[in-house]
Every structure is written in structure tokens, then in C-alpha cells.
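re the bet — no i am not wrong, look at it urself. input seq straight from the record:
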Amino acid sequence: MQGRQNIKLKNPLYIRLQAGFDRWLRVLNFEASSPRDMPKMLTSFLVFLETKGCNSISAVQESDLKDYLQELSERPNQKKEGNLSKNYLRKHLQVIRKFSRYLSESNQESFEVKVQIKGKSSNIKCILSPDEIARLYEATGEDKLGLRDKAMLALYYGCGLRKNEGLSLNVNDIQLEKELVYVRKGKGYKQRLVPLTGSNKTDLENYLIYSRPYLLSGKPEDALLLSIQGSRLVTVFERIRKLKGKARIRKQIGAHTLRHSIATHLLQSGMKLEQIQRFLGHSSLESTQIYTHLVHEQL
């Protein structure tokens, strides 16, 4: 983190709230980087409030949030020339929103966050074209690992799941008759149902019938995606990298690239932003709006 990371909080209330926010992030099912980075970003915001003489949550105003974002935008970037990017500012604003949510959910005094950051993100995410997605599918084999690869693509591209959401799935979460995937452990432990139709349903069904029983080898295991040892798969990075090599794709990609790609392709196909928000499990529409910027820049 940049700026105020080495400045310590003095306000006992803010020290307690920062520690509580840290514990809250660890209890919820956020990505591993969230408990690592977000408390530091929150500390930066709380130190800013202290310097303004704002020493209670009830005193936080929208003008304080705007002033903080303005100060951030004027800080020099320590990694390259210029100031901090809009994408970095959005991360800080996201942390403030989560802090407000933590206060509300723990029945503490909170504040509203209505501020939005306009403009394009300067940190464009990697997106695969429909042709590159097709080549990834073509790179999968028909053996038991190839069928697992197709199921993996069905989850991360076809269903737009986050990395941990896919790895946390159990067999019973794949509801073939209802054509749904039940995401039990979404971000922040939010649950949602994702449509499962067409080739995505076929690929998961083939994996369940023709691949998973062989990987399981008679062991008791509820996990959907299995390793060759028959235990829950803990990473999909290596398999995606192998498929990328076979497909001759030079971009740096991972499970999240597939999620970004399906969101962009759905938007290009005419799906409404609110529908994509529900599909991805975003808590706010602002998180989904980044894909409109990506589409415009591609055009």
C-alpha cells in the first residue's frame, strides 16, 4: 500500500474497528488477498479521518469520502510515473463500502457510501475473445482429465464462477434436473443459483458420469472437482496453463480471466447489466460496470 501505510492509528475506537474489520474479512469467504490488503487500506482512510479531526463514525460525511478520494488521486504512484490509477481508487472505495457493511452487519453505528468514481479504469483486465475460448475447449482431451477440463471451463467460463466458488463446489451443488449450479460459498458467504444449460450442462454431466468415478477410486469425497489422487482439487492454474499452451494463447490467463471473458461476451451479446450483476454475484452494480468500459475500449 502507498501513502499512510506506516502511520499508526491513535483513536482507540478506530483501532478497535480496524481489528474487528480484519477479523470479519477472515471469517467471510473472501479471496486470500482481501484480509491481507483491505485492513491496510482501511487504516489509511481512518488515519485520514483522524487528521481531519473526525474521531467518530457518526461524524463521517460524504464530503469526507470525497476529500479522501481527492487526496488519493493526488498521491504520486510509487511504481511508475504519474498519480494513482482510477482502478486503485476504486479499490479504496470498495474497502470503505465493505467497512460500512461490516459496521451495519455487526449492529454498530455506520455511514452511507454514495460516492462513485467516474471514468475508465486504467488497469484493463485480460479478456479472451470468443475464438480464443473456442480454442481452449478444442485443447481439452477425451480422457478423464480432459473431461474434467471441460467441466472446469463450464464452471469458470460458462457459469462465470470465481476461482474459490468452483473449487468449493460439491457434487450435490450441481442440480442437473433443475439446470442450476448452487453456489454455497460465494464472496462474503453469499449464496446464489447460476443457470446451467446447453453444452455447460452436457460437459458437467459427462464429467460426473465418465470421469469423476475414476478419479474418486472408491474414496468418500463430496467435492465436485477432484485431483488425480481423488481429493478436492485445490488449484486450477496448472490445467488452465496447459490448455493455454495447447491453444497457443499468449495472454496471461487464469480462472478469473474466464469469468471476465464471459461477462464481457454477455454484455456484447446484449444482456442487461443488472442481469450480468446477478449472474456474477456482484453486490453492487458499480463492480459490473467495469465491463462496459472494457467493451467500449475494445470497440
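see?? Residues 41 and 91 are 9 Å apart (CA to CA). told u. also Confidence is low (pLDDT under 50) at residues 1-5. so pay up
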